[in-house]
Amino acid sequence: MSDTTAPTRTVAVVSAGLSQPSSTRMLADQLAAATRDALTERGVRVELPVVEVRDHAHAVVDHTLTGFPPAGLEPVMTTLTSADGLIAATPTFNASYSGLFKTLFDLLPEDALTGVPVLIAATGGTPRHSLVLDHALRPLFSYLRAVVVPTGVFAGPDDWAGGAAEGLLRERINRAATELADEVARRPPRRPTDPFALPASFEELLGRGGQS
User: What are phi and psi of 71, to 5 degrees?
Assistant: First the structure.
C-alpha cells in the first residue's frame, strides 16, 4: 500500500501520436498503468498527467515562432518542468521521432529535465524502426541530461496482434516501468519550477544589453 503521508509523485506521459485512436497513445497508456502499479508496490503515490501533443500543435508552433507561450500551453510546460519522471512516446517518421514531438521538447528551458528519469517509447510500421529508440530518442534525452532508463519500448503492428509477440511487448513494458519506478522512488520529489521565469530582472537584462 502507498504511504498516505508521503508526497505524491508526478510522472508526465507525453504521447505524440497524430491519429485517433493512436497506437502511440495506447502504448503510452500501457506504460503509464504499469508504472503506476510498480510505484504503488513501492509505497509511492503517483499522478500521471497525459500530454497529448497533437492537442497543442498550434500552440507549440506559435510558441516557436513568437518566443512566447500561448496561455493554453503554460499548463503543459509546467507539467513537464515539474514532473518527477517522464514517459515519452512518439511515432516513427523517417527513422526518427516526429517533428512535433521534438519541437515540444525544444521549447523547454535549459536544464528542465536534468536528472529526471525518462522512459522512452516509440511505435512504427516495421520492426526496423525500433532503431529509433537508441539512435534518436536516447541521444535526445541524454543531451537534455535526463536519466534514460535502460529499457526502451518499441511496438510495431505485430506486437498488437496477440500471441507471443504481444506477450513479449508486455514483458518489455513491465521491465521498463519497473526501471522507471525504481528511479522515481529513490529520488526526492522535485521542487516545482516556473518555466516562464526570467533568468534575471529587467534591470539586469537592460544593464547587460548596454555592456560592450
Answer: -55, -35
